[in-house]
Design brief:
Strand order of the largest sheet: 3-9-8-5-6
Radius of gyration: 17 Å
Shape: elongated
Helix content: under 10%
Distance between the termini: 48 Å
Strand content: over 45%
Number of strands: 9
Largest sheet: 5 strands, mixed
Number of domains: 1
Order of helices and strands: EEEEEEEEE
CATH architecture: Sandwich
Length: about 130
């Protein structure tokens, strides 16, 4: 199973037709003072599997990690691969709604996306302090 897309965004949804809509992709947040709380952000992930993985179950783990290696939060789940026809791939989209994350100080963070215990993608996030005016 591969992670074909992973981004942080202000907003994301799935249309009735199955289209993935993403708005406001970013890799940095800014705050005047710390600690600060970011009200809401989305981690959008698209997973893809081929015919050899049909009917398998994969463990998914998403970790937010700071520069010191601490993990303020970890989310676990699983993906069950359905039928995959020859010449096609299985795709699934996940939109993780992240609310009220507190950042104690500016720094570098990363969202690790693991499939069956292996890091498949990392999404970096910088948290920066705005200059005082």
């Amino acid at each position: 199973m591969n992670v074909t897309l992973a981004v942080m965004a202000d907003s994301a949804n799935m249309s009735q037709e199955g289209k993935l809509n993403i708005m406001g992709i970013f890799d940095a947040l800014y705050a005047e003072t710390f600690p600060t709380i970011h009200p809401e952000m989305k981690l959008v992930v698209q997973l893809e599997a081929d015919i050899g993985e049909a009917e398998q179950v994969h463990h998914i783990e998403i970790q937010m990690m700071d520069a010191d290696g601490r993990k303020p939060f970890v989310v676990n789940g699983q993906v069950v691969i359905g039928e995959v026809r020859p010449g096609t791939v299985f795709k699934t989209n996940s939109i993780l709604n992240i609310r009220g994350v507190q950042f104690e100080r500016p720094g570098d963070f990363v969202f690790n996306i693991l499939v069956d215990g292996h890091v498949k993608r990392q999404v970096p996030l910088k948290v920066l302090q705005l200059p005082k005016t």
